[in-house]
């Protein structure tokens, strides 16, 4: 279970009743003339309701922008792959069929080190000629096992979901840490699957070979990217256990606590307005 992703889902779902409350109060104040005549508009809870509306509108806009950006990036990468696709050699196809032909694999004609699982609804594994030529058969098999795990778990879709949820929870800075930890868990889980299927040595060899190569210029499919993630993957390979995530920085924790407190206060103010002025509203 990817606990950081679950935490993001739970936190996002938990905000909707509160955000809905703010919208309801704002709509009542906007369209009910009696509320203004009774002096309800001067209640402190009105400001809290407006705050919830602003938070909710910003959350929706951020989530939509993040989703659209992710879809565009995926579409651009698919166009990049289509323009460079090469025939799949029989040995590579045979290796892939060891893991089951359910998911598609595509080869791109470039010497850049490219290996990625892409596609939200139909996961596809993309490898480059340069990568295939760099790895031994055992190492290539480990890479394929790693990517097959991503495809089987629908990780591209889950990564985008984590980004959208973190954008939705913009007022809680720790959401960005949860998003990063969720992506980290996807990689570590795929490594564990590959190590179990092909052995740690083959996976470690593939990792060491690829990290010495330059990052792809298009930036969409850099394998094993990120120093922190790389350290975590190496640690897991050495110990056989996933390492503990780094603690959240104190400043970000403090800002998250302040954001949660402000959000709670806004919800309390909106509820107080509803409870004390129900007849007028």
Question: What is the element layout, followed by pairings?
Answer:
Layout: H1 3-31, H2 33-37, H3 44-84, E1 85-86, H4 90-97, E2 104-108, E3 115-118, E4 124-128, H5 129-134, H6 137-153, H7 155-168, H8 174-198, H9 200-211, H10 227-239, H11 250-276
Parallel strand pairs: 2-4
Antiparallel strand pairs: 1-2, 3-4
Protein name: Peptidase M56 domain-containing protein
Transmembrane segments: 46-68, 157-175, 254-275
InterPro entries: Beta-lactam_resp_regulator (IPR052173), Peptidase_M56 (IPR008756)
Characterize the structure shown:
The protein has helices at 3-31, 33-37, 44-84, 90-97, 129-134, 137-153, 155-168, 174-198, 200-211, 227-239, 250-276, and strands spanning 85-86, 104-108, 115-118, 124-128. Strand 3 and strand 4 form a beta hairpin. With 281 residues, the protein is mostly helical. It has one domain. The protein has a 4-stranded mixed beta sheet with strand order 1-2-4-3. Helix 1 packs across helix 3 and helix 6 crosses helix 9.
Short description:
This protein is mainly alpha-helical. Helix content is 70%, strand content 6%. The radius of gyration is 24 Å and the shape is elongated.
Describe the biggest sheet? Answer: 4 strands, mixed
- In spatial order, strands of the major sheet run 1-2-4-3
Spell the H/E element sequence.
HHHEHEEEHHHHHHH
Helix residue percentage: over 70%
Helix-and-strand structural type? mainly alpha
Strand content: 5-15%
Number of strands: 4
Gap between N and C termini, in Å?
45 Å
- Return the average pLDDT rounded to an integer: 84
The stretches of 5 or more residues where confidence is low (pLDDT under 50) are: 215-224
Query: What is Rg?
Result: 24 Å
The oligomeric state is single chain
Dominant shape: elongated
Total DSSP helices: 11
Domain module count: 1
